[in-house]
TrEMBL record:
PROSITE patterns: AMP_BINDING
Signal sequence segment: none
Family statement: Belongs to the ATP-dependent AMP-binding enzyme family.
Keywords of this entry: ATP-binding, Ligase, Nucleotide-binding
Protein name: Acyl-CoA synthetase (AMP-forming)/AMP-acid ligase II
Residue span, AMP-binding enzyme C-terminal domain: 436-512
Keyword flag Metal-binding: no
GO MF annotation, one: CoA-ligase activity
Listed Gene3D superfamilies: 3.30.300.30, N-terminal domain of ligase-like
Length: 527
């Protein structure tokens, strides 16, 4: 068993809004949130006061403890206000990908029995369609303004009393992001107030921040990585968060330059751009002090190239998953120069790890031996919503969460993730479940069978590759038709990027798809 070298942390038994904003009065007039596109700024005092007023407005509209509120928005300075207001009103927040189709959104709404939606006017039509498809949604609010819909802006003028909700941090669910876990279709991950708040305390000794630090939030808040690293963690410590709604390289570089950003938390595709794109030379990025990459594996050579280009210490990595609130490992900011290339970091405070044999899961392995990574700690999720069997398959009786990732630890405790047991595809950090795409492909009248694996494109992104068996009635079905069929029905990041037609999908006797054989077959394809 491997243990963190940091001292254990006391579980944080506070609602997440109080855990994050406990020092808001102390930070007062320090900018908390800045819109990176138009400069609109909210101070810590305003974030604290505004989210309380919105909480009163939500409570006045009928939001109660135990309700689920779906937050459906790109990054804006209103996103944190909506999140903390909803939890203060007693709701659990399920975050929704802003590019989700109405059908995908409706599945999530129905699965978690959401009663409320908060969206933005450009996404309102999708939200309304999703609400209609799902049923059970009482009202759709907007962060900005739209005819016929109550706005969070209007709630700032609410004179209703602030809700006084009795929250049990250890049991009550604060966030309900959706994850595919190690396989299968997306499932609601129940993260309690205590789990999320304690994970912030666990991360703090390794990744310090404070007034004067400026973090650029370009990765989405709806993703647990963005929610933690770009919203909760910096706001808990008095840093300033500059918010961008999406990644556009020129806007991103201009924000670093103009707002004197000190820290970046990114995914590998952004590291690639920073390492290789010619535009980098046209901007002053000298304010940057560190870059941390997570959400997907980062090639050590690419990390080194990025650091050299920017004149910074090596790019650090972090590791975790939605089911772990999400952090378990990070390269500490004060150890970036000494960390071995390719490591995802060391165990954060209060976390334990085992590496177990893939052939004999009961056998623990030592340093230098690769096996499945198991994690235990206060950040382990409460479970999957309404799926006790899936929860039991993920977390064993002794509280160890089986990550499905394969890795090894060196003699100094640095973890290296080398492969995945699980079948999940990670496209630019977003989770794509092969089973979800396979189920969709099988609805095409010309497809008899299908399997999906992840393959790496020329930019190092893992993308979905479909193996398709044509029906005898559709001998002329083309790869373009297959890709278009999927693209019309899923969010852009889930699109199938390659298609191979085959005579059959290899399966085990149990019916499980033998994806390893498909990967081998793909490598044997003529180029």
């Amino acid at each position: 068993m491997f243990r963190s070298e940091y001292a254990d942390v006391t579980p944080v038994d506070l609602p997440i809004h109080d855990a994050v904003l406990a020092r808001a009065a102390e930070f007062g007039s320090i900018p908390a949130l800045i819109d990176g596109t138009d400069g609109t700024t909210l101070t810590y005092e305003q974030v604290d006061r505004f989210h309380r007023r919105v909480a009163a407005g939500l409570a006045g509209a009928g939001v109660r403890k135990g309700d689920v509120l779906a937050l459906h928005s790109p990054n804006t300075i209103a996103f944190p206000l909506a999140f903390y207001a909803a939890t203060r009103a007693g709701a659990s927040v399920t975050t929704v990908h802003p590019l989700a189709t109405a059908e995908e959104f409706a599945k999530q709404l129905k699965d978690c029995a959401a009663r409320w939606i908060v969206t933005v006017s450009p996404l309102l039509e999708t939200a309304r369609r999703a609400a209609g498809l799902a049923g059970g949604v009482e009202e759709v609010f907007v962060c900005d303004s739209a005819p016929g819909h109550r706005s969070l802006i209007d709630m700032l003028a609410s004179t209703a009393p602030e809700p006084a909700v009795d929250i049990d941090p250890a049991e009550d669910v604060a966030a309900l992001p959706y994850s595919s876990g190690t396989t299968g279709v997306p499932k609601g991950v129940m993260l309690t107030h205590r789990q999320i708040a304690t994970n912030l305390a666990q991360l703090q000794p390794s990744v310090t921040a404070g007034p004067g630090d400026r973090i650029l939030a370009v990765l989405p808040f709806f993703h647990i990585y963005g929610l933690t690293a770009l919203m909760n963690a910096p706001l808990r410590q008095g840093a300033t968060v500059v918010v961008l709604p999406r990644f556009d390289l020129e806007t991103f570089l201009a924000a670093i330059q103009n707002h004197r950003i000190t820290g970046l938390y990114v995914a590998p595709p952004i590291v690639l751009a920073l390492a290789k794109h010619p535009l980098i030379a046209e901007y002053d990025l000298s304010s940057l002090q560190h870059v941390i990459s997570a959400a997907a594996p980062l090639d050590a050579r690419l990390a080194a190239a990025c650091a050299q280009r920017l004149g910074l210490p090596p790019v650090g990595q972090a590791y975790g998953m939605t089911e772990l609130s999400p952090g378990t490992h990070v390269v500490p900011l004060d150890a970036m120069d000494g960390a071995p290339p390719g490591t995802v970091g060391k165990l954060i405070a209060g976390t334990e790890m085992r590496i177990v044999s893939l052939d004999d899961p009961g056998r623990d392995l030592g340093p230098g031996e690769s096996g499945e990574i198991l994690i235990r700690g206060p950040q382990v999720m409460k479970g999957y919503l309404g799926r006790p069997d899936a929860t039991a398959a993920m977390i064993d009786e002794d509280g160890w969460l089986h990550t499905g990732d394969v890795g090894h630890v060196d003699e100094e405790g640095w973890l290296f993730v080398v492969d995945r047991v699980k079948e999940l595809i990670k496209y630019k950090g977003f989770q794509v479940a092969p089973a979800e795409l396979e189920a969709l492909l099988l609805t095409h009248p010309g497809i008899a069978d299908a399997a999906v694996i992840g393959v790496y494109d020329e930019d190092g992104n893992e993308v979905p590759h479909a193996f398709v068996v044509r029906r005898p009635t559709a001998p002329e079905l083309t790869d373009g038709e297959v890709m278009l069929y999927v693209a019309e029905r899923v969010a852009p990041y889930k699109r199938v990027r390659h298609v191979t037609f085959t005579d059959g999908v290899p399966r085990a006797a149990s019916g499980k798809i033998l994806r390893r054989e498909l990967r081998t077959a793909r490598h044997e394809e003529p180029s």
